Amino acid sequence: MILNRIVPSQLDKRWLWTATIGFLLFLLIQVFPVTGQLFSTDTNHVLTRTEANVKALEWASDRFGLARENVEKTTVTHLSDSDTVGYLTKYELVDAFDKQWSATAPRDVYAVEIRLRDTLEGLVLYLDMDKGKLVAWQTKGNQSSEQVNSDLPADNLADRAMNYAMHWGVQADQWKWDGQENADGSVRFVSALPEIGQANPWLKVAVPNGYSAISSAFPPWQGGSVTYGVDLPASFTGYMDKQEHWAMQLSIFGFILPSLLMFVIAIVYTGTHGEHTSYRRGIFLSVIFFALYAGLTFNMIPGLRAGTWKMGASLSDNVSVIASLITYAAMALLTYFSAVGGDGLWRSMGRSLWPRWKEAGYGNDVLNSMRIGYFLAFILLGAQSFILLVLEKSLGSFSSSDASQSMYNMSIPWLLPLLAWCAGISEELQSRLFGIGLFRSWFVGTARKLLGREPSHRTASILTIAAIVPPGLLWALGHVGYAIYPFYTRIIELVLMSFLFGWFMLRFGIMAAIFAHVTLDAILMGLQMMFDGLPYDFIGGVFSIAMPAIVAIAIWWLHRTFRREAKTVES
């Protein structure tokens, strides 16, 4: 069989102009409105995790009387009030809320858990992320808060609770008692300042046994707490709960279970089409995928902790890491079988979308794929920005926050761009190379049986376009858990984007599609790093954007070097 080899070629002016327009749309729609100062490094300073840990230990010593030698372990976790962020974003109230409440009830905090030696008790300090100010705290372990004393008037209990809270920096004039008596002995206050929309912060104070308002001694903290949150409209919180429920259901029944079925099918097609390819195909990329994700898992342990914290679960870091590694190992296997099965499928249909290392022009193909990938990424960025803008205006789409994916929950934030390679490798091999190839073979094969002959070129082209939809939908359903609402926003966005990714693969080959995907993610992650407020991350953002080119040049050099050595040995 003569293969139609897809070779990455130079882009003509139409592609270059389209890429330029796409990049300008991305800047105008997504970048400028968010940063407001794209080319300025004058961003708010955010404490690093190490700085937050130092600040927490200082607070523990100064306000809680805990000596450093009594501290066994500390963990630092970035937490975000996602419902509040979503509400404020949806109704464009972020600036107003932050102006009034950022110092007292910030939406994002570092939670520093301090575990003490020789005791089950511990302490969690919540610090603002800019200066490390103590904004809340609570006891962990053996808690013993004061129960409501029926002999003491409720308003006296409120006064006593506020007096206790003032020891920890609470400003009494910003709060008023809500008039309720809580069975657990805590006292709840609501904001004395005007509401922001319908968002109203609250303060909850638990007074420990033994506290005396007239005592000059350092107030006890064991069994006490001073925490806060934000009251939101019931209609909005109910909406968010339903959205997360649907996202979870679609993730399970629309992505996880179909992915398991695709896993089995990929194994079958690897066996039936292995003669058209090599079983070594995809080994390197699958190993790279797993190695990168394994490293990122250990780098994102605080993020895993933030995810379980939000769900109210109490999983140890080790359990979360093991569960993640097992998941990524399964994904790596699926990536491998998708690579072999997909390459075999396309070659059996007379098309070669993936050059091989042993081919003389492989290094140049990688360089060309990288160059094309950058321009295709600009087109994708523009298309994605336009789609999201249309969905925002038509569906009222909005985003929230997800601390489990936060830069601030990374031990080494500079490793974030590696995630772009994980996504680009696995999703393009699974959804595009194997997914489109599988459904195209089914659709064209069905047409062949119905017609009793080979379908026309026009019919085959239409069926190829149709074959983009099922794996594109599966790919989209794998992203419904992201903090973008309503949940079907990402489904619409990514199904539309899948047509571009599929077209790019068919036109320029799978390597160009991978580089386009990696570059797209690397640019988004790089810009996120540039303005996250962490020290030196601006440089890391620049590196992220340049990373696909650096990798391609390294592969080209290695291929040229090994080819030269092989020729020397042969001669």
TrEMBL record:
<keyword id="KW-0812">Transmembrane</keyword>
<keyword id="KW-0378">Hydrolase</keyword>
<dbReference type="GO" id="GO:0008237">
    <property type="term" value="F:metallopeptidase activity"/>
</dbReference>
<feature type="transmembrane region" description="Helical">
    <location>
        <begin position="494"/>
        <end position="518"/>
    </location>
</feature>
<feature type="transmembrane region" description="Helical">
    <location>
        <begin position="372"/>
        <end position="391"/>
    </location>
</feature>
<feature type="transmembrane region" description="Helical">
    <location>
        <begin position="538"/>
        <end position="558"/>
    </location>
</feature>
<feature type="transmembrane region" description="Helical">
    <location>
        <begin position="460"/>
        <end position="482"/>
    </location>
</feature>
<feature type="transmembrane region" description="Helical">
    <location>
        <begin position="282"/>
        <end position="301"/>
    </location>
</feature>
<keyword id="KW-1133">Transmembrane helix</keyword>
<feature type="transmembrane region" description="Helical">
    <location>
        <begin position="246"/>
        <end position="270"/>
    </location>
</feature>
<dbReference type="GO" id="GO:0006508">
    <property type="term" value="P:proteolysis"/>
</dbReference>
<keyword id="KW-0645">Protease</keyword>
<protein>
    <submittedName>
        <fullName>CPBP family intramembrane metalloprotease</fullName>
    </submittedName>
</protein>
<feature type="transmembrane region" description="Helical">
    <location>
        <begin position="321"/>
        <end position="346"/>
    </location>
</feature>
<keyword id="KW-0472">Membrane</keyword>
<keyword id="KW-0482">Metalloprotease</keyword>
